[in-house]
Amino acid sequence: MLTRQDIFEGLQRLDELAREHGVMIDIAIYGDAALSLVYDIREATRDVDAVVNRHLEFLRVATAKVAEEKNWPPDWLNDGVKGFLSEKEALRALPGFPGSPTAGLRIYTPTPEYLFAMKCLAKRPEGINGSHDISDIEFLADHARVPDVEAALRLVESFYPANQIPAKARFGIEEIMQRVVTARARDDSK
């Protein structure tokens, strides 16, 4: 398992290697790693879901080098998230990462709205293969300021065509958001 600090150190090492080789790599980090880096809500994750659009061969070699140096699994940084990407991505620079305009890493993470939509589309049962999708959706509903079920569905549809959202995801979104709205009402009445 990789902690928040592990992930940050691995990315810093990749940044050093990219600077040494004079390459600029734009990398987008998603999922649990993004939640850990941006919101510090995940203690550890198995891997870092990321997408890179250029210098792929360099990054493969550099990632393997970092894995070897740190005794991590070779797929600690992988692109398994590609199936959940939207054509209407909404990314922002990772706060606190000292990127360079000339060489190294520039790291991006999804906005809370986009990450909310991605988690809703994935919506794996809680605990299955370490999934926290349901609790992540509940957490992100507040950060993305999603007030109710209808707004949640509209938000997901703003990133993904309605016909690509499975019925089970829609039902899951409705169930989760009803719990979120009920919990908010309970908290407001205290």
What does this structure look like?
With about 190 residues, this protein is an alpha/beta fold. The chain has two domains: about 1-110; about 115-190, no CATH class. The protein contains seven helices and seven strands; from the N terminus they run βαβαββαβββαααα. It has a five-stranded mixed sheet. β4, α3 (about 55-70) and β5 (about 75-80) form a beta-alpha-beta unit. The longest helix has 22 residues, at about 165-190. The protein is elongated, with a radius of gyration of 18 Å. The mean pLDDT is about 90.
Structure in a nutshell:
The chain has two domains: 2-110; 113-188, no CATH class. Helix content is 51%, strand content 15%. The chain has helices at residues 4-20, 31-39, 56-70, 112-122, 133-143, 149-159, 167-188; strands at residues 2-3, 24-30, 44-45, 48-52, 77-78, 91-93, 104-110.
What's the number of domains? 2
Categorize the overall geometry.
Answer: elongated
If you average the pLDDT, what whole number results?
Answer: 91
Low-confidence segments: none
The percentage helix is 40-55%
Biggest sheet strand order reads: 5-4-2-7-6
Distance between the termini: 39 Å
Structural class based on helices, strands and sheet pairing: alpha/beta
Strand content: 5-15%
Number of strands: 7
| Topology order in helix (H) and strand (E) letters | EHEHEEHEEEHHHH
Query: Helix tally?
Result: 7
Radius of gyration: 18 Å
Instruction: Summarize the biggest pleated sheet.
Output: 5 strands, mixed
SSE arrangement:
Blueprint: E1 2-3, H1 4-20, E2 24-30, H2 31-39, E3 44-45, E4 48-52, H3 56-70, E5 77-78, E6 91-93, E7 104-110, H4 112-122, H5 133-143, H6 149-159, H7 167-188
Parallel strand pairs: 2-7, 4-5
Antiparallel strand pairs: 1-3, 2-4, 6-7
Helix pairs in contact: 1-3, 4-5, 4-6, 6-7
